[in-house]
Amino acid sequence: MNNNCMNMLRYCQFFVLGLSLLCLRLSHAQSISLPPAAGAPPISITPIPPATIAVPASGDLTKAPIKKYSEFKSICVREEELPALMSSTVKEKRLALVQNKLDKAVATQNAGQISILKALLIREHIKQNNFVKAEEIFLREGIHLTETDRVLIATDIDLNKKLNKLAKNNLNKYLETHQNDILALEKLAEIYISLNFFSDAAMAYEDLQKINPKKSYSEHLCRSATLNADHANVRKFCFKLQTQDPKNIMASIYLGISWRDQEKYPEAIKSFEKSMGIKPSEYASTCLAESLYLSKNFAKAIQQFETSVKIKPDSKRARLGLAVTYLKQNLFNEALIQFKEACKLGLQPLIEMSAAANTLKTQKSDLANVYFDEIQKCKK
Which residues make up the CATH 1.25.40.10 domain(s) of the chain? Predict the structure, then answer.
């Protein structure tokens, strides 16, 4: 009888606790400001107001305010990665080469080669962005692959489906019994980057450096520290990278981003210019242009954004940066051209275009209607 009473009491306690937590979550949900459903998220090159911690006059990287990319709303965030394009002829030749080798391995009953070549065939379809075919073969032949190949191929398929967290969890589970699997750990580090788990990525690369000392992971560590606004380690790993590989343009780019995040624009400009001096790139050029913009040197920023467009005409961020900077100089026609190009590339800078249109409307300019028309076209 006493046990029944105690059980009933526990049940009531859990019920009250559960009801309290539900009310708390509902209350929190009401306080959240949801973004509007229409239009694309804004891409701005105007920083959020400085952090409350002041940056020391010495510019010491170790004492900088903690400010990450997500807080900065920068267009110079990460390298714009575009898939390498292969002609249909090249695709067919690559697939035929692997298939011929697989057919020979099957004919000679070479079990080891069959497993390797089946994995290679699936990976070739993944490289060609044919994930439907890759998954079809994987589901049929996966049982014949090595455990490592099964895990890595399944990870690529999950990532294509935007199941990054699932891929992360599966890799972590696999690594519990395969701690020294370099390929799996490298893949996991990149997944951490995609999920903005930059500290985890840095730890993964540090583990990789210990496991695989013949390969340098300085650039990966430099990049992870930059993304994490870990300015002390930016200096540590990026300077190390510069020493190991003086011609590496990324070290100066990441150092420049670190300076820019601290609003030390002269230092940032020097770093980006150093990278451009080693080898011109859209990445360094756009970051340099943004720093000039943030320094309110709009004329030079326009010139630099124009350089970015020349280097990489299909750069969305360079087009957007150029358009926004033109607006700062009241060059509305020139800005509209770049907005239209950005729209063609798949970007929807609707907020920036609307702001320009409203300004022109206030000025009673006929160009306002042209902007409004282009906004509607860009939405489609």
Answer: 241-312
Q: How many C-beta atoms lie closer than 10 Å to residue 14's C-beta?
A: 10
Give the residue among 194, 101, 109 at the shortest CA–CA distance from 119.
101
Beta strands in the chain (DSSP E): none
**CA dist., res. 330 & res. 362, Å (int):** 14
Q: Which sign does the torsion angle of CA 319, 324, 325, 331 carry?
A: positive
Distance CA 307, CA 286 (A): 8
Q: Distance between CA atoms of 155 and 317, rounded to whole angstroms? A: 29
Q: What's the pLDDT at 78?
A: 74
Fold classified for 241-312: 1.25.40
pLDDT tens digits along 347-356: 999 999 999 9
Measured at the alpha carbon of residue 362, what is the angle toward residues 361 and 363, in degrees to the nearest 5? 90
End-to-end CA distance of the chain: 70
What are the tens digits of pLDDT across the range 225-261?
A: 999 999 999 999 999 999 999 999 999 999 999 999 9
